Amino acid sequence: MAAATPSSLASSVEKTNGAKLCRLLIDGGTAVLRKWFNTFHPPSKLAAGLSSHFTTLHTLFKKKVLRLAQWDQLFPPNGDPADSKEFDITLLFLLLTNMYGLTPPSSGWHAMPPVGDTSFEANLARVKFFRNELYGHVSTTGVEMSVFLSLWQEIRAVLVDLGFDQVEIDRLEAEHSGEEDCIDLLREWSESEEDTKSQLRDIRNFQIQMREDVADLRQNQIEDQKILEDTRFKLDKLSQCQAKTLEAVEEMQVGIEEFKQEAEALKNLAKVDFREDIEYHAQRFQEGTREWIFQKIDEWLDDKSSENRVMVISGNAGMGKSVISAVACKRMQEAGRLSGSHFCQHNNVRY
């Protein structure tokens, strides 16, 4: 007759081992983390301490790192003061690693630290690692003796380094333990693990949305930069146009000033009537003579490209310079080309 299959609920040495590890890690780990937390924030000053870190905690809550139930433990909605005795190992770990500026070990908060690192931060990470690795996905509470002994030594060393009483650990190892409480705790942890996974998915979705928003922002910045560069180019063009306009205005002002000076000179010249002088000297002209010089004068007047604005007729006294000038003035007056004339006499102050 075939032997009956053992019940999965039957007690065994392996399940007793699992129960002891559960109590060591959950009860002992929670107690030692709470002890450290109370060192940072004594129970009598807990409310003030949490309030001083409200911004940090609220950010964790918005990112869903802190669950609503945990938030209500920190800031009870009924107005009662928070009590660290109600904080489980997960909440204590979150508070210790986010409120006090602790530096994570080289492997981070979520992996087993190097063997040689025995710092406070490394032991915190080890507590979290054992909790996740041993009880994150539980299919049985049984732990084989060889595995139990190895894990017991590792977890005990971590808890003792964190300040837990080794005598209590040794007493737990020697006593006979029930399994019911451990199973309930493991079930609660399993549910918490699923909740944590859901929160992580939400965080990933939030990060994806943030990356998309950042990408949109960068695109907007690129477009704004193009608009800014185009505006600068147009402003440069406008500045150049303004400079040219200013230069043209200045040239115009110079021209106007020169025109005023010339007009003033002509006005002064017009005050003296030299018609008698012109007639007097012109009567002394012998027709048909000196035509070559009159031709020179006409050519000079008609040459628009000439840079010379003055023609000088020189000669000794009595050579006929005044006669030539008078005839030239008379001819230009008859042709409508004479703007003004002035005759000087060394012995007449009127001139």
From TrEMBL:
Gene3D superfamilies: P-loop containing nucleotide triphosphate hydrolases. InterPro entries: Death_dom (IPR000488), HEPN_DZIP3 (IPR041249), NPHP3-like_N (IPR056884), P-loop_NTPase (IPR027417). Signal peptide: none annotated. Residues 162-200 form the Death domain. Keywords: Repeat. It comes from the Eukaryota. GO terms for biological process: signal transduction. Coiled coil: none annotated. The keyword Repressor does not apply. PANTHER family: SLR5058 PROTEIN. This is Death domain-containing protein.
